[in-house]
Amino acid sequence: MDPVRASARDIARAVNAREISAVEIAETMIPHVASVDEHLGAYLTLTPDLMREHARRVDARIAAGESLPLAGVPAAIKDNMCLLGTRTTCASKILEHWIAPYTGTAVARLLDAGALPIGKTNMDEFAMGSSGENSALGKTKNPYDLDRVPGGSSAGSASAVGGFAATISTGSDTGGSIREPAAFCNVVGFKPTYGRVSRYGLIAFASSLDQIGPFARSVEDAAMTYDAMGGHDPMDATSVDMPFETTAGHLREDLRGVRVGIVKEFATSDLAPDVAAAYEKAYADLAALGAELVEVELPTAKYGLSTYYLIAPAECSSNLARFDGVRYGLRVDGADVGEMYEKTRAAGFGPEVKRRILIGTYALSSGYYDAYYVKAQKARTRIADDFRRAFAKCDVIASPAASSPAFAFNAKSDPYSMYLMDYYTIPVSLAGLPSLSIPCGSALPEGGSRPMPLGLQLASPLFSERALLGYAHAYERATQHAAKLAPVQVVTS
Asked: Beta strand 259-263 with 292-296: parallel, antiparallel or unpaired?
């Protein structure tokens, strides 16, 4: 078995059967990842000693008779999730040298399930971005074209899995930050229902939207990772206290009897011809698997972007107030405390973070709160209501995950064009729904010389993760799109 290319399922089976040790896997992956990441830039911090330590623990537990669901599986951790004793930066200068004093719940559960921590992955600063270009600490590249973005904000997590520098990884999704990079990097990216995976230990961007989820190269591996991370956590006030359904053992082979909603307002005619053709082919493939395609309407979806870019910056403005030079990270001295605050935040935050703090502070300010923030929350409720009505007619909604393949670095210089990349994912996030991106083909990007991956977004009603992953698995098995593209040779050598 090749630990670099093997699935999480096969690695865990082999380690539990003692056909290969977790230590052997670690010793294979450590030099491989270090070599690959010189070109890819997926990681901000590699943790080889910690990986070896956890590998020894896994082997000892298996020798003692335990069976671990993710035994020996190499895992990458997005760098907005705390891992005890490691640098946890959010890809920001303000936290560049901050060491996490504890491990977040989702990460702890992965490690307890036997996963091996490779390192902490790069991201858009404080998870604010759609391309990965907003990191203050490094540049992550797309494993299918090193001149193109990997997508954001979970840039390094998607790039590492797509480039065979990790088997699974964690991401966080606020408005599309798992699904869009998954689409760009030819992997599965899964955002569970809001509250299904604990946010304890996740450094917050927008608390009512942030959700942790997995990246993997197959739906089954994503399901295994989600099963390990999910469930109620009393340490997180937003964690849902209800029975947790595992998913990996309940995947399906076809879509007979499933009603797939095609959103009237998400017409593919607005996309580039080859991109539109790929998505139309994906819808046809769903029908060929036995699904009934039905048209559904989301009339308020067009307000998703404006709603999101009031709510998310407002919550960001509140959450990031804690980074003031006193309690965490960077401190730039000044003549008095006010000047110290000003200099610290000016030096520590990048342009996009500053932009969103300013937008959010304005939306929450006296005289504007009702006109902007309160109205946005009412619009959010209307969007969620539209989804509920749509799901009365269908079981799952299919749509593009992104409007184009990965674009070149610096191709989108104005914020608005970048924000539009999340047009299809944001309404789903505002409604708190489970959704994922799964490889669905490829298209030649603008100015590109080779086809780049595309992702199909599937979204389902609240707490229907088992059904959603089952639908995705059936589509994946029938189409095998991920296997039709290969990362650039420098990444896989």
From this structure: parallel
Six token digits for residue 12: 């865990």
| pLDDT tens, residue by residue, 425-461 | 999 999 999 999 999 999 999 888 899 999 999 999 9
pLDDT tens for residues 64-81? 999 999 999 999 999 999
Token reading at 162: 């797509």
- What pLDDT, in 10s, does the model give residues 413-430? 888 899 999 999 999 999
Specify the pLDDT at position 489: 72
| Residue from 7, 78, 141, 239 carrying the catalytic annotation | 78
Active-site residue, from 7, 130, 135, 153: 153
Q: Which residues of the chain have pLDDT under 70?
A: 490-493
Instruction: Calculate Rg over the CA atoms of the chain.
Output: 21
Active-site residue (options: 177, 218, 403, 429) = 177
177 is catalytic: yes
Partnered with residue 214 across adjacent β-strands are 170
Question: In the chain, what are the domain boundaries?
Answer: 8-252+435-492
8-252+435-492, CATH topology level: Amidase signature (AS) enzymes (3.90.1300)
Contact 217, 7 (CB under 8 A): yes
- Report strand pairing: 188-191 vs 435-443: antiparallel
* 153 a catalytic residue: yes
Number of neighbours of residue 65 by Cβ within 10 angstroms: 6
- At residue 490, the pLDDT reads 65
Q: Contacts by 362-371 with C-beta closer than 8 Å and gap 24+?
A: 363/310, 363/313, 363/314, 363/317, 364/314, 364/317, 364/318
pLDDT of residue 449: 85
The residue assigned the tokens 């309404």 is 427
